[in-house]
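Bug report

Summary: C-alpha cells for Ectonucleoside triphosphate diphosphohydrolase 2a, tandem duplicate 1 differ between web form and batch submission.
Environment: batch mode, default settings.
Steps: 1) Submit the sequence below via batch. 2) Compare with the web form result.

Sequence submitted:
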Amino acid sequence: MNLWSRTIPAVVLLILATVGILLLIFQKKEMETSPDDMFGIVLDAGSSHTSMYIYKWPADKQNGTGIVTQHSECHVQGGGISSYAGHHGGAGKSLEACMEQAMKDIPKSRHSQTPLCLGATAGMRLLKIVNATESQRVLQEVETKLQSYPFHFKESGILSGQAEGAYGWVTVNYLLENFVKYGFVGRWLNPGRDTIGALDLGGASTQITFETSEKAENESNMMELKLYGQSYRIYTQSFLCFGQDQFLRKLLAHLIKTQGVKPQIDHPCYPLNFSLSIKLGADVFDSPCTKSYRPTQFDPQMDVRVVGTGDYQKCVDNVKKIFSFSNCSYSKCSFEGVFQPSVRGRFMAFSAYYFTQKYIISLTNTSITSPNHIVQAAWIICKMSISEIMIRTNQKEKYAKNICAMSNFIQVLLTQGYHFDNNSFSSIAFEKKAGGASVGWALGYMLNVTNGVPAERLGVMKALTPGGWGGILFLFIMFMLFSVGCLFFIYRTAQSKHDLV
C-alpha cells in the first residue's frame, strides 16, 4: 500500500472533524426567534347590549404600545348589564356564550397571559345615579363570572364619559394609521399626518373628541395622551342622556309635559297614523334623564297612546327644545353650557351616527355631505309611512318609527350643538368599521391596556442542549486529535523507511 492511499482516510477524518467543530462553534451563537402573538379581551358593556372584542398584537411591542389588530368579536344576547338590575345572576350568565367563544378563539397556551377587561359605559353610569348599591352588585357579579375563566382578569369598572371619548378617538386614529404604520422597509414608521376627530353616539351618551391647539377655557375638557412615543393634546366631552335611546325617551317626556298627561298624545316625529301604547313609568319617566320632565303627580302604570303625525317642522322644533343653547359662561359653547373649541380637520362619526345615515341613504338616496342635505332628507323621511320605511330599510317597526326623529336629532346635534357648518360638515365620514375592526372605544382601551403588558423577550433557540453540544464537540476534538496522530504516525513510518533505504 503506497503512502497516499494510507494518508487519505486520516486527511478526510481531519477535515470532517475540523468542519464539525467550526459548525458547532457557529451554532453556539444564540438565534433569536419571534415570540407568539399576545391576545387581549375587552367586553364593551353598553347601555343596550354588550359586545366582546378579542385583539392580538406581537409580543415585541413598538415604542411601548402593542401593534393591535382585531382577532374576533361576539355580541351578547339580551340587553346591557344594567338591564339586569334587580335580577341576580342574569348579568353574569349573559356573558357565558361569548366567553366560551373566547376560550376557543385564543390558543390555550396563551389563556393565562391574556388580559381580560370589562368597561361599562353610560347605561351603568345612569344605574349608579339611580342605585349605586345595585350598580356595584352588578359589577361584582360580572367580575366574579369573568374571574372564573383561565384568562388574566385585569379590571372591570364604569368608564367615565371622558375616557370613553378619548378611547374612541384613539381607536379611530389607530385604524387610520395616523399614529404608526408598517413601512415597506419592514419597520414601523410615524406617518406624520394630522389626527382626526371622533364622534360617538351610543344608547345613553354621546361623545366628541378632537385634537386642538386652542387655549383651554375649561381644563377639565382637556386630556394629554401619549401613544407610540408621541404626545397628543385633545378636547373631549361626553353628554350623558344625549345618546340615542335616552334622547328618544326625553323627546317623549317633553311631548307629554307640553301636551299634558292624557290618554293620547301626538308625536310629530312618528310616521303619520302610526301609533303605539306606552307606560308612563317604564317607557318614559323611570330614567334619571327624564327627571326634569316628570309631572308632579302621575301613575307610572298609566297607558298612553302615542299617535304619529309625520310633521317635519314640528318634529325638528321639538327636538331643538331638548337642547339648551343658552347660558354659556365661556367665549363659545356647544350646548348645556359646555365649553368647546372650534371643530377642525376631519372627523369620523360611528355607532348610531353610522346607522342613522345608512337609513337616510336607503330612504332618500341622499349622501350626507352638508347640513342642507340632512335637512332635505329628514323632510322626506318624516312624510313616509311606517310600512314604506320598514320595507326600504329592512328594519323592524321598533327601529323604523324613530328614523325621522334621529335624522333631526343628529342634524341639530352636529350643526347647532357642535357647530359644524357648510365647510366643516363635509369633513365628517360616517363609518362602522375601519381597517377590519369595529370602530368604538374598545380598541383604544386595549391599546392603553397593552402599555401595561410587558413585551415578551425574544426566545433563545440553540440547535442542541448544552450537554449534548458539549459531548459532540468533545467527540469531534477526539476525532481531530486521532486523525492528526494517524497522520503523524504515517509520516514517521514513511520517514523511517526512507532512512533505511
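Above is the batch result. After comparison, the two runs are identical; trailing whitespace caused the diff. The longest strand covers residues 230-240. DSSP finds 16 helices and 20 strands in the chain.
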